[in-house]
Specification:
The chain has 304 residues and is an alpha/beta fold. It folds into 2 domains: 4-81, SRP54, nucleotide-binding domain (Four Helix Bundle (Hemerythrin (Met), subunit A)); 101-291, P-loop containing nucleotide triphosphate hydrolases (Rossmann fold). It is built from 13 helices and 8 strands. It has helices spanning 4-8, 10-23, 31-43, 48-60, 68-82, 113-126, 141-154, 167-180, 197-214, 231-237, 239-244, 263-271, 292-300; strands at 101-106, 131-136, 158-159, 185-190, 221-227, 249-253, 275-279, 287-289. The chain has an 8-stranded mixed β-sheet with strand order 3-2-4-1-5-6-7-8, sandwiched between helices. 49% of the residues are buried. The structure holds guanosine-5'-diphosphate (GDP). Residues 107, 109-115, 143, 192, 225, 253-254, 256-257, 279-282, 286 line the site of guanosine-5'-diphosphate.
């Protein structure tokens, strides 16, 4: 049965289906078929290096027991599980530990940070946790407003300052309020763009320090929100965050609208960071835990 993750991968799966159908009945795929598969994987944004590695696996070790499709499935699963340290399949729980847990969401503008902040709040609240939001994207007045609207709907308080204020001050106040109100999880939306890259990175490290000053050891998690519709390109755009923001995991937003959902394999292969959640739509409950098994099933579809 195809679940929500599989349904979100529909457009990506379409990019692979012809090549998969072609290779499915073969025991010893010929070079041309392998190349067509590699191209299809690249078209689905698996990334050239990762696509080549997956196909090389089939080229080098044709199996009498397994079809190429089954082998591809195993190779993908192996890659996802080996390269995602500390990411239990279907991880849905709010991170546990000292209270409050502090989660920062970072990433380029428009990637889905504000929406993901709200979705995470709804998810963890549904698990009986108390939540506090921090609106630290003070550069985008609409982001603060958007988060306040979500907060009202979810009955989650939002700490915000005036637009244009100091994001690090919002982070400090949110962590401080989270501590004094004894909430379980603090989730903070941050800015994705500043005048220069240097400013943005300086801002992020200031935000880190502010969280740590309010609560020792915070932030507990820094999740990079990546727009799945931008695939490899989005990964490149997020490079500065990956290098400088102390990222501990990813949220792959907008998987539902993407034909480039193969990027998850590339992320696992290149970054060795766990993908925690995927965005499966614009609604508040459209967030699913990333589950490697369901992902690979969704990507490859049912065997015909
Ligand atoms: P931010 O600038 O990073 O805070 O991005 P936003 O959270 O404002 O999201 C940008 C746009 O993407 C909004 O129109 C959201 O509704 C949309 N969006 C976010 N996540 C998803 C998702 O998982 N699926 C779909 N289809 N749209 C999403």
């Amino acid at each position: 049965m195809i679940g929500v993750l599989g349904r979100s991968l529909g457009r990506t799966r379409e990019r692979l289906s012809a090549a998969l159908q072609r290779i499915a009945p073969l025991r010893q795929p010929d070079e041309e078929t392998l190349e067509a598969l590699e191209e299809a994987l690249i078209a689905a944004d698996v990334g050239p290096a990762t696509a080549a590695r997956l196909v090389e696996h089939l080229r080098q070790a044709p199996s009498a027991d397994e079809s190429p499709r089954e082998q591809l499935r195993s190779a993908m699963l192996e890659l996802l599980s080996a390269r995602q340290p500390g990411c239990p399949d279907g991880h849905l729980q709010a991170p546990a530990g000292r209270r409050p847990q502090v989660i920062l969401l970072v990433g380029v503008n428009g990637s889905g940070k504000t929406t993901s902040t709200a979705k995470l709040g709804a998810l963890y609240r549904g698990q009986g946790k108390s939540i506090l939001f921090g609106a630290a994207d003070t550069f985008r007045a609409a982001a603060v407003e958007q988060l306040k609207v979500w907060g009202e709907r979810l009955d989650v308080p939002v700490i915000a300052h005036l637009p244009g204020g100091d994001p690090a001050a919002v982070v400090y106040d949110t962590c401080e309020a989270g501590r004094s109100r004894d909430v379980d999880v603090v989730i903070i939306d941050t800015a994705g763009r500043l005048q220069t890259k240097e400013n943005l990175m300086a801002e992020l490290s200031k935000i880190h320090r502010a969280a740590g000053k309010a609560i020792e050891g915070a932030p507990d998690e820094v999740w990079l929100v990546l727009d799945a519709t931008t695939g490899q390109n989005g990964l490149r755009q997020a490079e500065d965050f990956l290098q400088h923001a102390g990222v501990t995991g990813l949220i792959l937003a907008k998987l539902d609208g993407s034909a480039r959902g193969g990027v998850a394999l590339s992320i696992a292969d290149q970054l060795e960071l766990p993908i925690r959640y995927v965005g499966t739509g614009e609604n508040i409950d459209n967030l699913a835990p990333f589950d490697a098994g369901a992902y690979v099933e969704g990507l490859l579809g049912e065997e015909e």
